């Protein structure tokens, strides 16, 4: 899309704004705000005349509402009236445990206003005075133009990544006449909707690829690759039918496994033998991310038999299941921390390529979940693996299945990478388009 520039520009006096259309006004945000108020929280509800209080957790990072069951609170009449939301109000998250969420802004539309809700004290309400379109302000506040300023102002003013009404009011912006603002909003509504639709298509593709990945793995490790092979009832409800020549065997007979030792923080040192953490077993290969170190003498005395070897597989017992990684030469010899389970194939029984896919299959994870539900131990660990049964094809077939899944998952991974790249580019395009429109770098008045 090629759009014209305005016929005449002037220096805004603000480096990040640059030149703006000659007839636009450069000012601080506070000069277009009528009310700039913190929120309320009140008391616990008693079921009588309680009020819905919206929270920052009901705002998405990109500035949309995601309201499920709003918190009901008992508010004094004065607080309820002062914090009652109206259509056109803007709500800014001013405090959060995540820097990603600070500054996210939602717009109160007709449906939200109809709720008769108030807002919590982790949010700041901005009610504009009519000089600036609330929807145009919503575009600006959720764009890097404002978020970067908020980040700089919050850190330079308070030393902490928290906002207040004064900081928000210091944002610098360029405003145009109301008719022109309406044209910019109409343009951005139309063009961002197109981009958002393309992003949604790519996100749907990612979801479909994830489903296909799961289905491909699960089918291969329970049905095999030959669609014409005779099947038999496994006798296990969650497993169903399997190839007639496959065995159903206890996991502990096919795979050698061991959880890392429980080690106290007092055993940590600045150097020595690396202690693998869960953060290092999230990808295809184990890494030393977040690792601590142990004294070599203490390892030799107490933990030597826990050392991992090149080619070992590692899964996390404390994080969500579905990820398995392999030990490379750079990690070999390290000690896995408790919560990390080391898997080794049993020679002549089970091969590593098959194990790698088996332990992330939906059937395997479902079995673990069923075992956890039946015990008082709700985290995943060796206790559950000792009770697990698995499919065991002949060795040659295990290798064939492993190679097939490696190939298919590689193809899917490339498609996922392309989709993620497309989403990133579309989001960059969306942000750049908004920035250009709200700063007057493009003239959208005649766009259709």
CATH superfamily of the domain at 25-175: DNA methylase specificity domains
The chain-level mean pLDDT equals: 92
Uncertain segments are: none
What is the approximate shape?
elongated
CATH topology title of the domain at 25-175: Adenine-n6-DNA-methyltransferase TaqI, Chain A, domain 2
Fold and architecture overview:
It is a single chain. With 448 residues, this protein is an alpha+beta fold. Among the domains are: 25-175, Adenine-n6-DNA-methyltransferase TaqI, Chain A, domain 2 (Alpha-Beta Complex), CATH 3.90.220.20; 247-392, Adenine-n6-DNA-methyltransferase TaqI, Chain A, domain 2. Helices cover 37% and strands 19% of the residues. It contains 12 helices and 23 strands. The chain has a 4-stranded antiparallel sheet, covered by helices on one side. Helix 6 (178-223) packs antiparallel against helix 12 (395-438) and helix 9 (352-358) crosses helix 12 (395-438). The model has no long low-confidence stretch (mean pLDDT 92). It comes from Marilutibacter chinensis. This is Type I restriction enzyme S subunit. Keywords: DNA-binding, Restriction system.
Annotate the secondary structure layout:
Blueprint: E1 9-11, E2 19-21, E3 25-28, E4 33-38, E5 51-54, E6 71-73, H1 77-83, E7 90-93, E8 105-107, H2 110-113, E9 118-119, E10 123-128, H3 134-141, H4 144-158, H5 165-169, E11 172-175, H6 178-223, E12 231-233, E13 241-243, E14 247-250, H7 251-254, E15 255-259, E16 268-269, E17 273-276, E18 292-294, H8 296-303, E19 313-316, E20 324-326, E21 335-336, E22 340-345, H9 352-358, H10 362-373, H11 382-385, E23 389-392, H12 395-438
Parallel strand pairs: 5-9, 17-21
Antiparallel strand pairs: 1-2, 3-11, 4-10, 5-6, 7-8, 7-10, 12-13, 14-23, 15-22, 16-18, 17-18, 19-20, 19-22
């Amino acid at each position: 899309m090629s759009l014209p520039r305005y016929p005449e520009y002037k220096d805004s006096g603000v480096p990040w704004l640059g030149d703006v259309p000659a007839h636009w006004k450069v000012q601080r945000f506070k000069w277009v705000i009528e009310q700039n108020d913190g929120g309320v929280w009140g008391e616990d509800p008693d079921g009588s005349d309680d009020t819905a209080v919206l929270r920052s957790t009901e705002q998405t990072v990109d500035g949309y509402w995601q309201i499920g069951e709003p918190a009901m609170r008992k508010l004094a009449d004065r607080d309820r009236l002062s914090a009652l939301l109206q259509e056109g109000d803007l709500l800014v998250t001013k405090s959060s445990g995540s820097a990603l969420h600070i500054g996210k802004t939602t717009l109160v539309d007709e449906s939200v206003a109809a709720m008769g809700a108030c807002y919590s004290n982790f949010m700041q309400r901005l009610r504009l005075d009519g000089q600036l379109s609330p929807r145009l302000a919503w575009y600006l506040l959720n764009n890097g133009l404002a978020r970067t300023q908020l980040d700089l102002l919050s850190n330079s003013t308070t030393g902490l990544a928290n906002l207040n009404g004064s900081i928000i009011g210091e944002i610098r912006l360029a405003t145009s006449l109301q008719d022109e603002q309406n044209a910019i909003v109409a343009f951005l509504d139309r063009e961002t909707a197109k981009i958002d639709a393309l992003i949604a298509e790519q996100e749907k593709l990612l979801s479909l690829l994830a489903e296909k990945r799961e289905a491909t793995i699960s089918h291969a490790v329970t049905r095999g690759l030959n669609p014409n092979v005779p099947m038999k009832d496994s006798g296990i409800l969650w497993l169903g039918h399997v190839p007639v020549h496959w065995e159903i065997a206890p996991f502990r007979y096919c795979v050698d496994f061991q959880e890392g030792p429980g080690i106290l923080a007092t055993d940590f040192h600045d150097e020595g033998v690396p202690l693998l953490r869960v953060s290092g077993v999230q990808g295809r290969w184990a890494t030393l991310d977040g690792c601590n170190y142990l004294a070599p003498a203490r390892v030799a005395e107490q933990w030597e038999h826990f050392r991992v070897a090149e080619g070992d597989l590692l899964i996390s017992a404390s994080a969500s299941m579905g990820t398995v990684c392999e030990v490379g030469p750079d990690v070999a010899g390290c000690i896995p921390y408790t919560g990390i389970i080391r898997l080794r194939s049993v020679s002549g029984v089970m091969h590593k390529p098959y194990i790698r896919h088996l332990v992330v299959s939906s059937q395997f994870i479902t079995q673990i979940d069923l075992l956890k539900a039946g015990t008082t131990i709700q985290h995943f660990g060796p206790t559950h693996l000792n009770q697990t049964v698995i499919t065991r094809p002949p060795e040659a077939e295990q290798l064939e299945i492993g190679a097939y899944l490696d190939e298919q998952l590689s193809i899917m991974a490339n498609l996922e990478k392309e989709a993620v790249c497309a989403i990133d580019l579309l989001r960059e395009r969306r942000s750049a388009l908004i920035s250009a429109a709200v700063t007057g770098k493009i003239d959208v008045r005649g766009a259709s």
